[in-house]
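agent> fetching stored inputs for the flavin-adenine dinucleotide docking request
agent> found them:
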Amino acid sequence: MIVEDASAASSLGPALQPVRPVLDSSAMNETGAPMERPHVAAIDAILGKPFRVLDDGLVRVVDYMGSDESIVQAARVSYGAGTKRIHEDRGLIRYLMRHRHTTPFEMCEIKLHVRVPMDCWRQWIRHRTASVNEYSTRYSVAIDSAQKTPPGGWRLQSKRNKQGSEEYLDPARGAVFSEKEAELHALSRKIYEERLAEGISREQARKDLPLSTYTEAYWKTNLYNLLHFLKLRMDPHAQEEIRAYADTIGREVVSRWCPITWEAFLDYSFHALELSATERNVVAALSASDPTTAVEIAKSAGMLNMVDGRLAKNREREELEAKLRQLNLAVPWGM
Ligand SMILES: Cc1cc2nc3c(=O)[nH]c(=O)nc-3n(C[C@H](O)[C@H](O)[C@H](O)COP(=O)(O)OP(=O)(O)OC[C@H]3O[C@@H](n4cnc5c(N)ncnc54)[C@H](O)[C@@H]3O)c2cc1C
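agent> prediction call returned; pasting tokens
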């Protein structure tokens, strides 16, 4: 890690002592010899290979810069590649991830080519920390493909989560909606093409194409922001469609590109359990076999308000209950 003030180095722990307080090009490569570009054989092997997502979507790596080694190198401000043993590199990356020392992860960049239905893309594009070039349907004819839903693929509105879905519509009934979907896709495409044939501008002719129409883009981001995207979009709360893309990027791409970082991300971020101060105190009381104190803490935090003699709905309490179940701790209040 680069530190502006060498006297601050001691607070960074033994693995992070800076090699030099000031970075300059001669310090990085004193011999002036050409530096070799870092390569990751596992990602080179899949460059350009499309990973299929949904019925007609894809993700493929167009280019990348950096590797686990680059993260380590940035953290150590070192040019001694290969002088550290692999378990030390792993230890350093895990330290950086654990302590949210994030900038070394920004040294890695990746450019993906993605093909995504527009409703899913609308969620994706909210991640502002990427550089994007999208296929223009003002300039070119819209892609003639829309995401189709099989009869067994219609999800029902969740009763617990206003944003979510759960369970599936009976496929016999779903077949009716899949058929209507096909009719809608065909009609909207037909009208779109009629407008184009009439000379109507592409920018206006497209306005009634369904959100299920596929779009394509180049999406470039750094590893830090990519992991943030994956944390949010691999999460079960994210919509199934974007989750399919995030899972593919994580498990097929990042796991090959930066395997040590991927492992640390799963461990310290994606599968980690975060506790607020209140939650930690409740867990501590339960671990000390003191459910009465645990209930008092939850009560004073406003999680156990009563309405008509029953516990009022409280999202934070429900989230805490889910965490207690993960920790094999009994929920100490009536549910
Ligand atoms: C399950 C789920 C449900 C969602 N529901 C909704 C919804 O109902 N409505 C809705 O509008 N959105 C919704 N979103 C989108 C969400 O609010 C974010 O816009 C989206 O996830 C992008 O996250 P981000 O801003 O952290 O990412 P990025 O845009 O990539 O930003 C990464 C980080 O950079 C920093 N940053 C970037 N830009 C700024 C800025 N201008 N100012 C300050 N800090 C900045 C922030 O720390 C941010 O976390 C939902 C997202 C998820 C995952």
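agent> quick read of the result: Residues 126-129, 225, 228, 232, 237-238 surround flavin-adenine dinucleotide (CB under 6 Å).
agent> awaiting further instructions
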